[in-house]
Write a structure and sequence with these properties.
With 319 residues, the protein is α+β, with helices and mostly antiparallel strands. It has ten helices and 17 strands. The strands form four sheets. A six-stranded mixed beta sheet has the order 1-2-3-17-9-6. Strands 7-8-11-10-12-16 form a six-stranded mixed beta sheet. The longest helix has 14 residues. The protein is globular, with a radius of gyration of 20 Å. The two termini are 27 Å apart. 45% of the residues are buried.
Length: 319
């Protein structure tokens, strides 16, 4: 499966050409994605789920025709039953050969909160602790993160044998959650950035992730490299040239008839790669799938495109 590469000025072509292919395994009717560098570590278990297979029944009409499909929904949703989700999770963990591991989840709130996971957190399959990143160096624990457009990021310290699972949407990326997770691993486990491998799983691509001037303004205030992560009139939006408070006066349109503010497209993968690289992770240690969840709704769930949809899961743990 060849990755679909998003073009960026900051990344030379020679680097993009050396991106290894991600492995796709079919197990018990499920399709699991594996990052190439992670798959080489015999002490580590990991995987990124897709929507195919599973016991859940999702009604969709993306092609203009309503249909019901069997999907691997791993998140508790109003349209799905708890029993089917739990069955899907059991099948997913079995496909990872991780059924015997204790699964750790979190209540994701688009924050920069990083939690250290241990055996006490594995008492229930459903966790309510608020966080958007989990780290551990304890064998037998499987850290999980749920997504449906946001970028799932897995980290592995190949020297200290520590791992992390991160949920990074535009808010988490803005708060540098990947960098803060790495910093917490340094504090807790003595992790060195140069020993870390990072896998950025399927998320919404720049091609489909349209955001408004408020997002552009916030990124411009926090990241000098932000212009490289956007397509569209980023500079003018960041300066406030299209402020809706004065735009009607410029156009002389009556109230309620002013044109909508221009939009830009954000590349979350490029942003997180840059953040991790700036934190000391070698560029060659950072891999990404190159797959857009909104473009590939045949393979992934996408909240932006579908609205009513399921959740995928990324998981990592120490055997």
């Amino acid at each position: 499966m060849n990755p679909v590469v998003t073009k960026r000025k900051a990344l030379p072509r020679k680097r993009l050409r050396r991106i290894p292919r991600w492995r796709q395994r079919q197990v018990r009717g499920l399709r699991i994605l594996e990052a190439p560098q992670f798959a080489k570590l015999n002490w580590l278990v990991h995987g990124f789920s897709t929507r195919t297979g599973g016991a859940s029944e999702l009604e969709s009409d993306l092609d203009g025709r309503k249909r019901t499909e069997k999907v691997l929904n791993l998140g508790f949703s109003e349209w799905d039953t708890r029993e089917r989700v739990l069955e899907n999770r059991r099948n997913f963990f079995a496909a990872l050969n991780a059924s015997a591991m204790r699964q750790i989840a979190m209540r994701q709130i688009h924050s920069d909160i990083v939690r250290v996971a241990n055996s006490a957190d594995a008492e229930s399959p459903v966790q309510t602790a608020k966080a958007d990143a989990l780290i551990t160096n304890e064998p037998g624990l499987l850290l999980t993160v749920q997504v449906a457009d946001c970028v799932p990021i897995l980290l592995a310290d190949k020297k200290r044998h520590a791992v992390a699972a991160i949920h990074s949407g535009w808010r988490g990326t803005l708060q540098r959650i990947a960098e803060k997770t790495l910093g917490r691993m340094q504090m807790e486990f003595g992790t060195r950035p140069e020993d870390v491998l990072a896998a950025l799983g399927p998320g919404i691509g720049q091609c489909c992730f349209e955001v408004g001037p408020e997002v552009a303004t916030e990124y411009a205030a926090k990241f000098p490299d932000a212009p490289e992560w956007f397509q569209g009139p980023f500079d003018s939006l960041a300066r406030g040239d299209n402020d809706p408070n004065w735009l009607p006066w410029l156009t002389m349109r009556p109230p309620g008839h002013q044109p909508p503010s221009p939009r830009v497209h954000l590349d979350l993968i490029a942003a997180n790669r840059s953040i991790l690289s700036a934190a000391g992770v070698p560029v060659g240690n950072i891999v990404f799938s190159g797959l857009c969840t909104a473009c590939r709704t045949d393979l992934f769930f996408s909240f932006r495109r579908e609205r009513v949809t399921g959740r995928m899961m990324a998981a990592v743990g120490i055997r």
